[in-house]
Amino acid sequence: MSLRHLTVTFRMRGGRAVRAVNDIDLDLAAGECLALVGESGCGKSVLASALLGLLPGNAVVSGTALVHSPGTPTAPLDVLSAPEKTLATRVRGRLIGLVPQSPAAHLTPVRTVRSQLAETVRELHGTPRAELRAATERAAARAAFPPDHLDHYPHQLSGGLAQRAATAAALVGDAPLLLADEPTTGLDRDLVEHTVDELRRHADAGRAVLIVTHDLVAAERVADRVAVMYAGRIVEIAPAPSFFGEPGPRHPYAHGLLQALPSRTFVPVPGMPPELSRLPTGCAFAPRCGRATAQCTTTLPAFTDGTACHHA
Ligand SMILES: Nc1ncnc2c1ncn2[C@@H]1O[C@H](COP(=O)(O)OP(=O)(O)OP(=O)(O)O)[C@@H](O)[C@H]1O
Ligand code: NI
């Protein structure tokens, strides 16, 4: 996947514009797992929704998002400009799988998990009726969804079970690109590990995985690279070993995010992120940054050499 200048703006009443994703360039290779991290509201889920054409009508999207399916001779597809029919028949679930952030809201409330999962298996693999039951149970097992809960309706599931049902459905298509938006929220540590290991296997089989997460411990376990997002922009991209180990993050925000972990200094980044409808002229992190100088408040730092900071 190659993103260039990906920008998403929501038009609000009164002419206000919320710039949720701001000029993002990002490449993700086959076989690679990238963790996208950053504070609540920085634009991670909007980025994922943009790639699947799932944004509401007031969203204005620009830039390109080329997604290539390895092993197929066709040219990469720009999913941002693809018509709805292409998105529905070739992209969603097939070229790009999604583990949604709110699984309970994405599952159909009036159908059992079994029926939804079976439909997904049949649609994506053409599994014959006689084999569908076993194939559905295998699909459930990949996300550790218990077989005795398959006949439950979404409202009868706990948050963690709904999460696993959604993950199972997302894995069915073995899509070349998998977007997992906080796939481990509400899971116990052993289930977190089970889920991220399944995502790792997905990448190791030659697919690309983008995992959005607040769980830096899970990110360290699964990711090859880490991208840190702040106020709609990517402020740092680093290989996971150098991000979590030596020399550590280079952007002051990325550094603060990591230091906030209980296993590190347990000190939060001070202050609050800016309003996305009133972004400052210079670096959006400058008001919260201990290293900010006059230049930071006036000049937007360019993204060079893996980070966007005047003082990295
Ligand atoms: N339909 C919408 N209309 C207006 N603003 C929106 C809309 N959807 C999202 N936003 C705004 O876009 C910004 C980014 O939201 P997003 O859901 O991508 O955050 P996130 O990084 O995924 O956060 P979290 O970690 O809490 O899931 C937020 O400020 C949000 O209020
Ligand atoms: Ni989100």
TrEMBL record:
<keyword id="KW-0406">Ion transport</keyword>
<keyword id="KW-0533">Nickel</keyword>
<feature type="domain" description="ABC transporter">
    <location>
        <begin position="3"/>
        <end position="256"/>
    </location>
</feature>
<keyword id="KW-1003">Cell membrane</keyword>
<dbReference type="GO" id="GO:0005886">
    <property type="term" value="C:plasma membrane"/>
</dbReference>
<protein>
    <recommendedName>
        <fullName>Nickel import system ATP-binding protein NikD</fullName>
        <ecNumber>7.2.2.11</ecNumber>
    </recommendedName>
</protein>
<keyword id="KW-0067">ATP-binding</keyword>
<comment type="subunit">
    <text>The complex is composed of two ATP-binding proteins (NikD and NikE), two transmembrane proteins (NikB and NikC) and a solute-binding protein (NikA).</text>
</comment>
<dbReference type="Pfam" id="PF00005">
    <property type="entry name" value="ABC_tran"/>
</dbReference>
<dbReference type="InterPro" id="IPR003593">
    <property type="entry name" value="AAA+_ATPase"/>
</dbReference>
<keyword id="KW-1278">Translocase</keyword>
<dbReference type="GO" id="GO:0016887">
    <property type="term" value="F:ATP hydrolysis activity"/>
</dbReference>
<dbReference type="InterPro" id="IPR050388">
    <property type="entry name" value="ABC_Ni/Peptide_Import"/>
</dbReference>
<dbReference type="GO" id="GO:0015413">
    <property type="term" value="F:ABC-type nickel transporter activity"/>
</dbReference>
<comment type="similarity">
    <text>Belongs to the ABC transporter superfamily.</text>
</comment>
<dbReference type="InterPro" id="IPR003439">
    <property type="entry name" value="ABC_transporter-like_ATP-bd"/>
</dbReference>
<dbReference type="InterPro" id="IPR013563">
    <property type="entry name" value="Oligopep_ABC_C"/>
</dbReference>
<dbReference type="GO" id="GO:0015833">
    <property type="term" value="P:peptide transport"/>
</dbReference>
<dbReference type="InterPro" id="IPR027417">
    <property type="entry name" value="P-loop_NTPase"/>
</dbReference>
<dbReference type="Pfam" id="PF08352">
    <property type="entry name" value="oligo_HPY"/>
</dbReference>
<keyword id="KW-0547">Nucleotide-binding</keyword>
<keyword id="KW-0813">Transport</keyword>
<keyword id="KW-0921">Nickel transport</keyword>
<dbReference type="GO" id="GO:0005524">
    <property type="term" value="F:ATP binding"/>
</dbReference>
<keyword id="KW-0472">Membrane</keyword>
